[in-house]
Amino acid sequence: MNNKDNLIPREVFDHLVDLAAFSLEEQEKSYLHEQMNNQLNSIRELEAIPLPDDLPVTTHGVDYGQDGTPPLRKDEWVACQNTADILAQAPCVEDDYIVVPDIPTTELE
Amino acid sequence: MTIAYEAVIGLETHIQLNTLTKIFCSCKADSWEDEPNTNICPVCTGLPGVLPVLNEKVVEKAVLLAAAMQANIQDLSFFDRKNYFYPDLPKGYQISQYDHSLATGGFLDVPVPASSDTGSDAYVRQVRIHKLHIEEDAGKTKKEKDRRYVDFNRCGVPLVEMVTEPDLRSAEEAGQYLIRLRQLLRWLGISEADMEKGNLRCDANVSIREKGSTVLNTKTEIKNVNSIDAVKDAIRKEIERQIKEVEKGNTIKPWTLDWDDNAGVLRMMRSKETEADYRYFHEPDLLPLVISPAWQARILEGLPELPLARRKRFMEEFKIPEYDADILTTERDLADYFEETARLYGGDAKKISNWLMNDVLRMRNDLGKSMQELNLTPAYLTELVKLTDDGKINSTIAKHLLQKVQESGKAPYTLVEELGLAVVSDDGAIRSVCEKIIAANPAEVQSYRDGKQSLMGWFVGQVMREMRGKADPQITQRVLKEILDK
Amino acid sequence: MMTELTDYSAFKLADLVKTKQVSAREILQAHLQYIEKADGRPGSLDGIPSADDDKKIHAFITHTEAIALRQAKQVDEKIAKGEDAGLLAGVPFTVKDIFCVKDTPSTAASRILANFTAPYTATPVARLAAAGGLMLGKVNLDEFTYGSSSESSAFQPSPRNPWDLSKVPGGSSGGSAAAVAAHEGALSLGTDTAGSIRQPAAFCGVVGMKPTYGRVSRYGLIAFGSSLDCPGPLARTVKDAALMLQVIAGADKADATAAMKDVPDYLKDIEKDIAGMRIGLSPDYFRITFPDPESGEYVEQELPTEIQDAVYRTAEVYKALGATIVEDVPMPNTRYGIPVYFVISRVEAASNLHRFDGVKYGYRTPEQVKDLTEMYRRSRGEGFGLQPKLRILMGMYVSAAQYAEQYYQRALKVRSLIRNDFEIVFDPGGLYKLDALLTPTTPTTAFGMAAVYGDSVMMQYADQLTVPANHAGVPGISIPAGFSDDGLPVGVQLLGADFSEAKLLRIARAFEMATETDEWRTKKPIVLEGE
Ligand SMILES: [Zn+2]
User: What is the ipTM of this complex?
Assistant: First the structure.
């Protein structure tokens, strides 16, 4: 066993699968879990990099500057012409509503 | 021994801004009368590949609100993604602002009126604002049998989320806060602020503690309340429930409660995601929002004098009572109307206030119009009040004239001429009527002369009736007295 | 050997059409016939592998002849009327199937979008069409672009390398590079998030450019890493790449990150000489660092000599053209490109893939479910392949509240370091004053089908030399620079400062012109040799 094994405990992995809303086969789980551990091992290299305190974060590499920054949108209405095409993509539609199974909740009182 | 409790309440409000279009796409914002899923486009339905483009009016309206709340407007703020699954959220994340929001801090002074119930005097509660940010609204779902029906029309309506510090101490205060907030939003012209239509929504965080304590105990969150009365009812109920629980020795759990307005009860809903992890991160599809000093200055040029300041100024400048000033500053166009009229008139502003509060407001409400829409302009109202001051018309005629001005759109003076409404102050004309009345009522004349002085009123009334109310009452009385006392 | 219409450059084709020597329709027919012969069956969801798969290219997922015919008709009508038919009049192109095109299946090579027909068209595609281009079809890629070999597509068979059909074309724009290399359309629209245009271009011996972030609108590009994704051209010549960039670049009201910078004329000075230009070489681009798959320890490895030699040969050509070669340029943060990418791209990808939930479009499980949560889980579990699942889970992990500071925030800061490397060397007032940095595009030539597939870490390290440009946002171009001993193309990469595409294209074109008559330029992909 080497240092990269099981950086992500199984409970954490299961929690992530839950958050990601995946139903997975056992075989998929073991592949994914192993690959995640490998990737995390690679990511951990970041922890060792000395970072100056005042180093800013970069959210987009490019510096847009004032003249490169696109203006905000004017408040002008342009109606979409093919809303029916959008709705037509939904797996289940009734009376122009998109229909899904109900949300699981527990009423306690 | 009974322990005195106090409530600790914070409100989280969601305010729909009244822009023409949605926050990130060019669909119109208001879908109130639209069929489901008709006011949508690829962007607000989260199709693969689409991108948000921020509506500048959203920023401007939010900045106005922030300035009105005395908040610190940030020259640089970021949009973030709040990730979670819900069928009304087409992208699977809400574009919001998290740790670098548009504005921080600020407060609203909330006058709380005296209460006969609790015997408390009027006071002002200052409610601090914790955070103010811009975000997009989600769609709507409705439950039918065991399925959910989703309508995306509301997706992308611009919202300001404003969260207060836990500074409110009663349901009544929470109600007053919402009344003042609603007034302010309409005053600024940035939201219709209609709770029934969901333009203004409110979640309440409620906890209790021993009076005088400064601890913050576990709170519950009440959701789904859609009127100010409902907010007050729900909070009252929750305070009672918490006190009961504590007195039974139970602890309060951090529940989320759903208000059922029809049944008037709170229900606890437990969804599966108990600990939500929204995994906020900066929205890469939008550049950071920069509000330059020049732009901010331009926006703030549109910031009007605020209701409470104006109320105070009305009392000082126009010498009207607090009660009047309060009513006249409930709405901005009413305050504008009052101020313009009072200036045109130049005399005792209380008179203008009386006219407005007694007659003009009632007329406007009956007509269902705004102040600006009235044919009875401040100039016409001024003219009308001056006609009464000058004795050209009496008060009965004046009220009648008010309606006529509104109906016809003509100036009061013109109408007085056209309809012959002017008070008759011609001594001769009044004298001939008085003589006629005295000649026709010998019995009453005798009684009067025998000492029943109170009949004078009756004689004046007869003359008025004959002259259809237009006789100058002073002249009439003098002439009658002259003839009768002869 | 006769030159076919499919052999011409986009530049030449548009010229032939405008001078009425050939019609758009004729060009289209020639391409359709050729594709039918060379490409083989398109990738499909139930594509069962067969031995015949190794004899064809398989670049396509969807053919769009009907659209192309309509476009050709419009071009020919415009020409007949003497109207301007556009820069790309009659030029056939393909589109990586990660772009939405109205009324066409837009699949992202994923089961979860297999039945999705886009109701709108991506901006770069709309611009190609408006310029007179003919859209031949949507080409294959790694599922949601997640990979470097195109093998992870849910639509099989996945594309082959036209120079050696047992090798991968690279990825994720593998279908694009294979199509262009195999003469199935002169141009292809790809996307580059970590090297996804440049790496397949290098593997397939074509030109591929990742423009500056924000130079080309992303509207309609099904997002992977939104702060990294760049649409860009793949072409057989530098001039064709320039021509295509000319058409697709520029601000877009629908993309708030599309820069407002004017688009220069990329062709005007493209053949001007490059004497006096400063071209850098960095030792940090001649080795890769990666964790050993067995021990997890970091291993530093020199690149194969044939890759290194190609770069040095290119540098010699530039030197001969009068450029100054600046050696030993430090790019010390290059090695962090991959770990930073593992964090940032995963966080963005996990969020971008939230919308695929079976509610509004795409795949919804056909199974009976008890509630919404089960519908989500089954739809996403059945609809996504392994690679998207892996990226989503990893993204969830590193952005979870308790780890975000440690990983995500830290990665954004290291991203600043990487950006800083470029700012220093391109600074006109700085020590290096580079016009371009010359590097290998890839650590290896095209690898065999199934050779690396499945090992997500090793697959990712193939991007080590391309990914820094995505972090920094700077433009990069990969151009063919010869062949390895076993006959596979080798690419070299030119990286430049923000919005320096015109300069990079000019430097790239200078190499192309200088080597025009070289022996290696006469080599043809295997699929073309049989003609
Ligand atoms: Zn919309």
Answer: 0.96
